């Protein structure tokens, strides 16, 4: 026993040394950015970073300037904060910065899916074919049909009632958008009531997974939560398996069916297909509800913006009405004639989208800044951009950046505004809610059209009001920075009712 104890102790010391020594021994080399390894070996600043990424990076930026390197959970991240210097990172013409490696690490940990060679091309091809152009029109119609199903709930008059209902706005938006998106992508059966019950159950599990996700990625979950996370991953693998969803195959979206068919033809096992479906579920639905929450909240808090959207909706949807409380009528072509709503959504995403864009350095290289300064980047490190802080909240680019201005992205003639400046120079990356370059979201057109459909339905067919009109916009949950669309730190209660039919 003593010998085995010594052996295990030696192994533990070796593992700790393996993990910690690179960080302990690393020193800043000439021309490298300022280096901060923190006080805790291997962990570095991971806990402070996860607790409030925004405040952490703002403090480091003020102290160390536009480029700095920090240790986060065994990895060194170099943050570049000057948006005028983003282009060489995003374009990456010399191919020394890689997005795929980091993405593979994340999807393996979160979804249990080990990427297959060529699957990125399958996703890109399917997204181009079915999430743009005529393919997107078909999917938008399916989303509209599912929004009608979820909002009007045949057989259950609760949501379809014309008397006031009360709910938390965040829960309402997340719940409705998730269920409509899930059913439109993964399909329905002939039993609509059962479909709604199943979608509600999937949403509850998805929401719990979503709550645990940030700390899971930073490896900060306790033992019980780690066990729960593993159980949730297995549950989704089962719920989204091909066998479990066979009866829905005809109703499945062409987008998802296309990808699963090609992967199957490559000999991909059913277990791996289920993990792929889980990844697609998160990619398509993880941000829809939170985005819609912020959009409706900003409209409810800004009556002039709400009125402008209602006026536009009345103009483009002239003559449409609810058909016997069975389905909403909304011409899909109207989505292309809503410049005011487009500006509202772009402004909402500027204030609510806070993704982190990460690239892995493939070989030692030099980063040349717009100022002319050059920094050496070390092979194996991560280069990261956080556009929310460095772009969306920059008062030079967006005056009064913390204020919601529904017409910020509109020119006086009603066209889309695309000319923004920093230090007198026109800036290309003035808003980056979808990422950029090779990592730009392939489903961004579907996501935007889904949110616009939801907002148009809510302002056209429903009366909406906050329970407490003077309630302030809640602060962002500090644990959600860097994970796509932010979430509120607390709920906001509102009332809604279906407008009476004429």
TrEMBL record:
Keywords: Endoplasmic reticulum, Heme, Iron, Lipid biosynthesis, Lipid metabolism, Membrane, Metal-binding, Transmembrane, Transmembrane helix. InterPro entries: Cyt_P450, Cyt_P450_CYP7A1-type, Cyt_P450_E_grp-IV, Cyt_P450_sf. One of its GO terms (cellular component) is endoplasmic reticulum membrane. The keyword Chaperone does not apply. Substrate binds at residues 109, 287, 382. Its cofactor is heme. Belongs to the cytochrome P450 family. This is 7-alpha-hydroxycholest-4-en-3-one 12-alpha-hydroxylase. It comes from Fukomys damarensis (Damaraland mole rat).
